[in-house]
UniProtKB/TrEMBL annotation:
It comes from Nitritalea halalkaliphila LW7. Pfam families: Patatin. This is PNPLA domain-containing protein. The chain crosses the membrane at residues 55-78, 99-118, 138-161, 236-255, 261-283, 290-306. Keywords: Membrane, Transmembrane, Transmembrane helix. Residues 375-615 form the PNPLA domain.
Amino acid sequence: MPRPRLRYAFPIQLLLLHLRKNLLLLALWLLLFLIIFERFGGILGIPFLFLDPEYLNAVSFQSFFILGIALALFTMGFHMTTYILDGAKFKFLAVIERPFLQFCVNNGLIPLIFYLLYCVQFIRFQYQNLPESPLTPWVHFLGFGLGSLLTFILFFVYFGFTNKHFFILFADEVERRLKKTKIPRANILRQYKDRKRERYRVTHFLSWGWRWEPVRSDLRDFESGKLLRVFDQNHLNLVLIQVGLFTLLFLLGFLREVPLLQIPAAASGLLMLTVLMMAVGALSFWLREWTTLAVVGILLLFNFASKTQWLNRPHEAFGLDYGLPPKVYNLAAIAEASQEADLRADREDTEQILNRWRAQYPADSPPPLLIVTTSGGGQRAALWTFHLLQQLETLAPGQFMANTRLITGASGGLVGAAYFKALYQAHLEDPLAFPLLETRYREKIAADNLNPIIFTLLVNDILIRRQHFEYGGKRYLKDRGFAFEQQLNKNTEGLLDVPLHHFREGELRAELPLLPINPLITNDGRKLIISSSPMGYLGASSAVLAGSGVSEKVQGVSFTRFFADYGAEELRFSSALRMAATFPYVTPNIQLPTLPRMETMDAGLSDNFGIQDALRFVATFQDWIEANTSGVVLLTIRDSEKVEEIEETVSRGLLQKFFTPLRGVLVNWDNVQTLHNEALLNYMREQMPFPIERVPFEYAASSYLKDRNPSGTYSADELEVQRASLNWRLTSREKLSIINNLNRPENQQSLSRFKAIMAAWPAPDPEAGAIRLTQLRQEE
């Protein structure tokens, strides 16, 4: 048979029809294309969910098998929706065998291209990220292909039978129901009239055997009733499958804590998109030109309903008592919680801790004050910080953590530091059960947290958020914040699943470093100072603490003092960490029991490197530091390079220019903070009567990109995304890159300086220390 003119081939006519009419459906495919090519959601780690899906905490044959099923469901949803919307425009479908299945074959151009490109992308991604063996990516490919193939077979078998037998059994009943419903019947008849007016010329279609078949020439004799019955059958199929998918999503939401039902987040996302696509198709069919108005109305109705108490439930901090009347949050309440006498009492409490640490050293051999700062940056910063702290303890066993008096930071870096602090405390209590330097702990902090968060967002937070759990005798709603904490506590063996006051005794004995957690209060830009030991002075200047009468805006609110009546000290420590690591869309902002409602946001927004808090501490205790130490050693841990080469400016399109101002703010926020911190540090060095030495450690994002790309090259956009990464998921190559970054010459130089500092550290005097501690206790 001669090949048809390409223009009038059915696949091409369907593609042109989609481009003219079904742009919303094509937008969903475009979104998937952007994701797999890492052009959408890269900062949040969304592409990893598709290119490296996890199921039961492992990337495996099973995870790709489930993803294959989900993508096949999405593809069939696309076919069904477009068939219901546009099948009636092509009359020849009614007179060929199994019209819907033939339609799927000809409508498969876009899905086929996506499948091919996706397979190429994920196999390439797997090889780039150090598979366990050369065959592993192909095992994953087999799982994905088998999942998709079985799903397509089930659908084709179902439609192959129901298009014939279901129609014979139920077509008359469906028609009788349609006659009773005036609006649907009128819409169907209107579609027939439209079809007669419009001419979609198709000369050939692709058959089951992948052969071109000519379209019958006697279609004018075709009866409209037959097409109506075909529509009836497939519309009912659409409804049945849509109800089935909704039911599946609700079941996954209610049973999401059952490990076997925690499917890959990408699969749940595809199920959600499938439901959305089929719902849009149903609305378009029944409402036609009223569809846009109906969609806008539904969105407005949902927006209004989201303000009600039933839907707008707060994301809570676990451990706090939300059952009490909310505390008034205004300037008077802030002033009451920030009285000079209370702030000075907090300072005196910290001085007692510092004195206990200083007492172990001879009076004539003052040690330096060791402070660690760490930056935000999601899972990458958490692993980089933990790994570095572990290595520093290895180089100075029994010295480093024992003499670190303060750790400050934000977001992921603070999570890694908090885990090391908790592990260190457990090690002090039972060294055999918790060997501090084992690499398995590093693997735990690097374990995936993103999949349960996105999975919960899709199957719970968007649809229904009504499940509860109990913590500390109080009842809280389950949400993706809960999912994040549960996974984090599982990964860290429960060491962070403790109340805030858990570390108080260790800090009082000067065995553990202070570690304030300072998320941003979005209401007014102040910091919420959360700590096991009282540290309210971090929100006030030295002039205020000195009682000089200076009037200034309070810069921070003490959490334990402000929420003392709400069980502040019982706050779950992982909830405190979550407050300081609330990435947009991933982990929700926490609302606290105040009026107006206080809402917290990622600490990195105000101080992503912990430098400001560290220098505020130094300024507060400058007299004590001058009298009792040889100066300050500041170990700064960054998950990005401080000094970066200026990238060449590239030509941008109109849309890129439109978003350039916003993009510039986001990308350069770290640079702005870095320059501000440099100026602040230089000022402190000039003003303080003691030396301040900085020992920097930096993770270079460019090293990962060079390792990942065989050519060793990368684009400016790739570097920007990698530097700004905020996700809670790391690939195998990223983990290796983070570990190996310590071998960079700059970091090796800093390690050498650290070893020299620790080698010169004065030896403790146990006898004199015991006497001085006794004297301190008597004075207290």
